[in-house]
């Protein structure tokens, strides 16, 4: 291209440049190493000697002219690019903040954790057994013999002749004693199943079994531990009371009541006017059960208890229907946000 032609093309193409990629292509075409201006420079060898000086001067002028127009354009494009980026990244600090919805633990989960915390502080660790059990673990080795009427106390969901959904966490006792030697101090939390459903019963619910086996374990140890437990869960001035009861796997067996933490024992609707609320069952592990697990009952004794987790949660939070704990009603569950 001739000089004048280059200038014209340069100006025309410069006008078209709108962003930085185009600009760098443009630079290569005109000002790069093998660009048009450089080619003009190279053309000097074909120019007669006496015109070389003049030619060189003109090419230099074009070069400087082109460079300064290019620089101007570059400034302009840089400014445009930055403005576009700023516009894109602009944040309106006056907009209202996004509402972040965070969840919370289900009341049964936090109740379970709270209970585990209390017993962990007394040195208990955790064992979890299967929810599908066999007759042996759920009944027979717990001294609930075939045809024993107490089998009917627990409305069992049978899966086969031998397999069932565990009706309590007590089979965990057998599993622990089969696999560990005393001293034993263990909690077995988990889901249990019974064919039963009303305001305070659900076909699936949760229990927390406690088992301690060592030398010289007595009912006093049971009451002492449960005293600590109810004080931690309900309130410092709550007391426990043991009432005689019957479970085939404990002898003696007790029902444990707490003094009513709402009325302080005077009598109210929560304690049905009695001043006491039943919270759990327990007792001294029946020697037969220890022996069923190969533990020398002349040397060791044990205590066991089973706590209904829903029951404790319902009492603590004043929930009147167990179903509320399983319905997943978000408005209900939100109340338990810490
Ligand atoms: N397993 C009994 C129940 O479900 C509770 C219990 C556990 C009683 C341990 C005594 C000892 O009713």
CATH level-four homologous superfamily name of the largest domain: Bira Bifunctional Protein, Domain 2
The structural class is alpha+beta
Q: Could you say what the CATH architecture of the largest domain is?
A: 2-Layer Sandwich
Strand content: 15-25%
Explain what you see.
The protein has 338 residues and is α+β, with helices and mostly antiparallel strands. The protein is built from twelve helices and nine strands. It folds into two domains: 3-89; 107-334, Bira Bifunctional Protein, Domain 2 (BirA Bifunctional Protein, domain 2). The strands form two sheets. The protein has a seven-stranded mixed sheet, sandwiched between helices. The protein has a two-stranded antiparallel ribbon with strand order 2-3. α1 packs parallel to α4 (49-89), α5 crosses α9 (219-233) and α5 packs across α11 (309-317). It is rod-shaped. The chain starts with a helix and ends with a helix. Phenylalanine (PHE) binds at residues 168, 170, 209, 247, 250, 281-283, 304-306. Phenylalanine binds at residues 168, 170, 209, 247, 250, 281-283, 304-306.
What's the quick description here?
The chain is built from 12 helices and 9 strands. It is α+β, with helices and mostly antiparallel strands. The chain folds into 2 domains: about 5-90; about 105-335, Bira Bifunctional Protein, Domain 2 (BirA Bifunctional Protein, domain 2, 2-Layer Sandwich), CATH 3.30.930.
């Amino acid at each position: 291209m001739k000089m004048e032609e280059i200038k014209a093309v340069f100006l025309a193409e410069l006008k078209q440049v709108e962003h930085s990629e185009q600009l760098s292509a443009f630079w290569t075409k005109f000002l790069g190493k093998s660009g048009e201006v450089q080619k003009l420079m190279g053309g000097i060898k074909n120019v007669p000697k006496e015109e070389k000086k003049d030619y060189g001067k003109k090419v230099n002028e074009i070069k400087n002219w082109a460079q300064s127009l290019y620089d101007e354009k570059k400034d302009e494009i840089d400014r445009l690019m930055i403005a576009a980026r700023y516009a894109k990244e602009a944040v309106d600090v006056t907009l209202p903040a996004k509402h972040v919805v965070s969840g919370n633990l289900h009341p049964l989960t936090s109740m379970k954790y709270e209970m585990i915390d209390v017993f962990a502080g007394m040195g208990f660790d955790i064992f979890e057994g299967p929810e599908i059990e066999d007759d042996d673990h759920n009944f027979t080795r717990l001294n609930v013999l075939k045809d024993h009427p107490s089998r009917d106390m627990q409305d069992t969901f049978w899966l086969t002749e031998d397999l069932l959904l565990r009706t309590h966490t007590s089979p965990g006792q057998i599993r622990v004693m089969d696999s560990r030697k005393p001293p034993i101090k263990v909690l077995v939390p988990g889901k249990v199943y019974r064919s039963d459903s009303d305001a305070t019963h659900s076909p699936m619910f949760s229990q927390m079994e406690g088992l301690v086996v060592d030398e010289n374990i007595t009912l006093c140890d049971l009451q002492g531990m449960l005293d600590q437990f109810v004080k931690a869960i309900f309130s410092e001035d709550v007391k426990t009371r043991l009432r005689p009861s019957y479970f085939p796997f404990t002898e003696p067996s007790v029902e444990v009541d707490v003094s009513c933490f709402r009325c302080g024992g005077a009598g109210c609707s929560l304690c049905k006017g009695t001043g006491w609320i039943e919270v759990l069952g327990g007792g001294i592990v029946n020697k037969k059960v220890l022996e069923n697990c190969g533990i020398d009952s002349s040397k060791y004794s044990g205590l066991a208890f089973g706590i209904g987790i829903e029951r404790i949660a319902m009492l603590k939070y004043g929930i009147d229907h167990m179903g509320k704990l399983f319905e997943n009603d978000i408005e209900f569950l939100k109340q338990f946000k810490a």
